[in-house]
Amino acid sequence: MVREEGRISALQACGYQISIVLATAILFVPGIVAQKARSDGWLSLLLAFIFGLIVAVISSKLALRFPSQTVIQYAPRILGPFLGKIVGFIYVYYFFYVAYYVQRQFGELMTTAYMQETPIVVFIAILTLLSCYAIYQGLEVICRVNQIVLVIFIPAFFFLLALIAKDIRLDNFLPFLENGWGPPLVGALAPGAWMGEVAVILMLTPFVSDRRRVLRTSVTAVVVLFLCMLVVVVGAIGTMGAEVVARLLFPAFSLYRRIHFATIPILERQDAVFMMIWVAGMLFKLTTFFYAGLLALSQWLGLKTYRPLIFPTGALLAALSLMSWHNISDLVAFSAEVFPLSIDFVNLFLTGLLLLVAACRGLREVNGSPYADGEEVKGSAGAV
Amino acid sequence: MRMGKKLKDLLVQSKLKRRLAPAPPPLPQEDRKAEKKVWEPGELKQIPISSSLEQNLALVKRVMGGNADFEMREFVLGGGEKRAAIIFMANMVERSQLNRQILENLMFRIPKDQKVDLDFLRDRVITVAEVCEVRDFWEVFSHVTEGCAVLFVDGENRALGLDVRGYERRAIEEPVTESTVRGPRDGFVEDVEENIMLIRRRIKTPNLVMERVTVGRLTRSVVVLAYIKGLVNPALVEEVKKRIAQIDMDAVYGFRYVEEMIIDNPYTFFPQAICTERPDRVCGALTEGRVVILVDTSPFALIVPASLPMLLQTPEDYYHISGISTAIRWLRYLAFIFSVVGSPLYVAISNYHPDMIPARLLLSLAAAREGVPVPAALEAFMMEVAFELLREAGIRLPRQVGQAVSIVGALIIGEAAVRAGLVSPLMVIIVAATGIASFTVPSYELGVPMRLLRFPILFLAATLGLFGVVVGLLAILIHLAGLRSFGLPYLSPLAPLKFGELRDVLVRAPFWAMRTRPETSKRNWFRVSPWGRSQRPEEEHRRES
């Protein structure tokens, strides 16, 4: 009855791109930015915004060259079968890599902030199972639920932050450019990398019903993400000061702990409420990467469907997420130092490279028929 | 009863013997055994009506003989010596109509020396509106068992089916399961013809189409498909028809039999078709471009496709001032969510996040739980089960005993259990509030899954706290988003988002603001004149001044 992949609207694609970044970014970015750029954190975000726009434009341009295929399908056409397959595999690995990184982040946060007694594997397993369920239902369902989650998530996020606006002290943002432009630039690396994740449009474009609007959705996503990150960074540094934020594991959570309604004492501490919506956001951060990875893997292997891969891959990712980092400080250091560069490599460098070569060789999709071309490439991919 | 019938039969026979010659031949010896034979529809379809009246009647007797309520009346047509017979089920026909419009006319109103054949009888003599020609015995018996009378005439290899159906119907009453304060008071009844009438009376356009299908091998229930041509998506109608045509089962007694055979997702708790006993609701759905399925003997109509927001609306919303309807609608939405998470939230917060509760409330909470021997999760579970038991008992019992149950429930659970220290008073409040919230869900079919799903969520809350509640809710959300009802996503217009339709979901916009038809109807014309608003008197007045 329902087609395997189905169609999503441009709005849903935009939601997908927002979700793929949002949940972890607002959690980790304030800390990293405060560490690197101190009181100039907001400047780092501006720089990251520009970086995000560049990635959005590059990836959309590339996607629009081959609107009926995913990057896995056309990479062999651009770079030749062998190199193309290698690049395809890097993309596949990238999606899974971020997915299990997200799983670990989620588990760490739940065990550190909420339930210290519960083993981390419980949280990772539950989130992965939910994610598998969503992916089993297909892209359309993921996008639909994601839409609902975002409609709750973003307003709640801004609303809760508005409650602490009165605590923001502007002198926390001084001194301005204490050590020149160096620290803000370094600080921009991490948020820039996060925003670069909107390059997932390379996997989504064939399923978007109105493909011409792909560029616009990517840019919109970057703008929304910029605003969200800006609000949380300004909120965190403005209320607590850069020194404190830099030392915190999860500044956003500490921020929410400060909220309490003086006049209506219904619920004392809002961080549990924030946790509830954040779990939803996190689920979709994981699901978006997991789905993109599964789709990429199935296309890389030349399979007709990704469904048989869901549970084995999910189990593998859960195991990887447990094995890859020793503890939370390991994870935080990784987030700040290794992670941004490694995903920038894929999102900016590889994507840029593909666009460059495609442009030089003048490659673009010739005929308008969407799936005929894809089949052909899939067939040749199976032969390699 | 049976004796009386036999006597009557004997009387009829003897009268006939006096008046008619020759008497119908007795069944041949070998056919006595054959009377035990079971006649299959396929077999009957193979037997054409013969031109000999005796032969026909012999066969009818072989098939229907021994039926106490089967009647056969043989007579001579007026104006000649031609014999004829009429057969019918005694309790399914309107006797006066049969006597006056058929028998009387056939016996007395045929002019002398008129050449009589079936066409003449149909065109000139029988004054019944619905008459149809019958050619084989399957048709004969399907007409008879439906309550029609069948007229055989000697020398004709055809027969006439005459619609003289008449049987007791329940009067149209106020719908019991969906009552409104301001809405109309009529509800569907068991008879499908009556229900069609209730719909037709509201929508007076030739474009309202009622298609009739027969479903069920034994019951041959009438299923009527209603839709408005030009508003409905033709592909939807085709799909519904195709799915109904595929139903092949012995018995179809009501809407559920049809519903379960045609819905998209068989493995879900959630209703995928709206069942209603209100004609106004059905008509609202028809004008939205949906298809309505009426099943004979069922006082409920099915509306497809269904969506979750639609299930949370009531006809009442459209009989109140729009602002009030909006507020009530939101109250209902909140109650809908609360009916799943009410007691789980309490368990999660009191067990895992006591720091969320303000200090003073926490103190009184702790004081109330003082001495309760079981953990809060078990306490909640016990109370929920007790609540469900009371509810179920209250429905099944006769009304007089039902009151006793509620008194016993209120006393034992509300009062004695608290005083004995088995449960805390706060838990009683929470469970009662959750239960009441679940009763505000307008669709009974939707209220039940929500109450059932509360138990797994309660378990999650007891083991994982608020995280468990969120996980449960997300799982439900993903499940709901994955459902489709005849191709329509279950959560639409929320997800996928259709801004235009939100004005009947997030709010109940005034009628002049709901200008376009929903997207279920492909041809998206205005349903209110776009100038409708500016023609309202006060604005004209304003423009003039």
TrEMBL record, chain A:
InterPro entries: Spore_GerAB (IPR004761). The keyword tRNA processing does not apply. GO terms for cellular component: membrane. The chain crosses the membrane at residues 12-33, 45-66, 78-100, 120-136, 148-165, 185-207, 219-242, 275-297, 309-326, 338-359. The keyword Transmembrane helix applies. GO terms for biological process: spore germination. Gene3D superfamilies: Amino acid/polyamine transporter I. This is Spore gernimation protein.
